[in-house]
Design a protein that fits this description.
Number of domains: 4
Largest sheet: 6 strands, antiparallel
Order of helices and strands: HEEEEEEEEHHEEEEEHEEEEEEEEEEE
Distance between the termini: 93 Å
CATH class of the largest domain: Mainly Beta
Strand content: 35-45%
CATH topology of the largest domain: conserved putative lor/sdh protein from methanococcus maripaludis s2 fold
Number of helices: 4
Helix content: 25-40%
Structural class: alpha+beta
Shape: elongated
């Protein structure tokens, strides 16, 4: 009886161990790949109208950085930022003492050189009279002539140096060459500046420009002399302008190009105010193009591709496309797609060819329509 009881106890234990062994030896089943939900857009024809409205700033046609033609310590600055000045008005002054002493020294040298020249001229006349009486030879008179010429040359040099030093003293005052507005101050009284170092920024009175920036895909469609309309904020005041200058290179930070629009009859506009520039329909506009958001594009090797949805099998297929240009946050497709196809617009980097997907918010999927 005890042996029978022990066998009855061992039977469940052996059966449980057998079950565990069978489970451990069975092959592992791989987890099925989850079906992803994707957003789709229906490819349709739209219009590429290359135009836009840009915010511009009013600037003077001619802007200068005013500087002293000599170096020195600034004693006074009579002009302030925003101040309107007239031609010939004194804007700033540097210490002129050293230049005044140099001018006096140069003037003294000129006086000495003049005395030497006068003495040589008197000697020449005297020797000329002696030669007429045959008291001296012609060679002696030639030597006196050479001395007179050397003295005259020394006098001319001394006079030029004296004039130059006098001019240097006159450069101690920074004058406005024309009427305009001081737009900035770059040096203060007590500061020592070198010759040519900017002291003031100055905007000349006269014609005005509207300066604005355009993206890369627009700059190639602008032409010099092209007409544009300009409005002042929300007011009805408007002006006409022509493209005067197009930037040759893009800004390294914003990748935009600076455009200057010459305004007509806008001399009264205050500097720095904001204008709205309306660019008309530019070259490159097309009535029937295919556009996609940039989020639908991906790189496949060295080509650009998109995922095209197959509604019969609910899978996605890779389709290579050619991009023609950009239009804001969208790109214009030159080839590779046709109207009516459905393209994945988001999450394109987590899909693979032939992968099954579900459509996110399928009821809201729009039909092809021209914008």
């Amino acid at each position: 009886m005890p042996q029978l009881a022990s066998r009855l106890i061992l039977l469940p234990i052996l059966f449980f161990a057998l079950i565990l062994g069978m489970v451990a030896c069975s092959p592992k089943q791989e987890a099925a790949e989850p079906i992803r939900s994707v957003k789709l857009i229906t490819v349709g024809s739209s219009e590429l109208n290359v135009q836009g409205e840009y915010a511009a700033e009013v600037r003077a046609r001619t802007e200068s950085r005013l500087a002293f033609r000599i170096g020195g310590k600034i004693l006074a600055r009579q002009a302030e930022a925003g101040q309107r000045v007239q031609a010939g008005q004194v804007l700033a002054e540097v210490d002129v003492q050293d230049y005044a002493l140099a001018a006096q020294a140069a003037q003294a040298l000129a006086i000495g050189a003049r005395a030497q020249r006068d003495l040589a001229a008197s000697d020449y006349k005297r020797y000329e009279a002696l030669l007429a009486q045959n008291f001296i030879s012609a060679a002696e008179l030639e030597r006196r002539s050479a001395v007179l010429k050397a003295a005259q040359s020394s006098l001319d040099q001394a006079l030029s140096q004296a004039q130059s030093q006098a001019n240097q003293a006159g450069y101690a005052k920074l004058l406005a060459t024309t009427s305009g507005v001081v737009t900035g101050v770059e040096a203060e009284p007590g500061q020592v500046v070198s010759a040519g170092q900017s002291v003031l920024r100055f905007a000349h009175d006269g014609p005005r420009d509207a300066v604005f920036a355009v993206p890369e895909h627009v700059v190639g469609r602008l032409k010099l002399g092209q007409k544009m309309s300009v409005t002042v904020g929300s007011t009805p005041q408007s002006f006409q302008g022509r493209v005067r200058e197009i930037g040759a290179s893009a800004d390294p930070a914003t990748r935009t190009f600076t455009v200057k629009l010459a305004l007509e009859k806008a001399e009264s506009l205050p500097l720095g105010i904001t204008l709205n520039v309306q660019a008309p329909q530019l070259a490159g506009s097309q009535p029937d193009v295919i556009k996609l958001p940039t989020s639908a594009l991906r790189q496949e090797a060295k080509q650009t591709a998109v995922w095209v949805f197959d509604p019969q099998t609910s899978t996605v297929l890779s389709q290579v496309v050619q991009v023609a240009t950009a239009d804001g946050n969208e790109v214009v497709i030159a080839s590779g797609l046709k109207a009516g196809q459905q393209v994945v617009s988001a999450g394109v980097h987590v899909l693979s060819p032939g992968q099954k997907v579900t459509v996110y918010n399928a009821a809201a999927l729009s039909t092809p329509a021209a914008k």
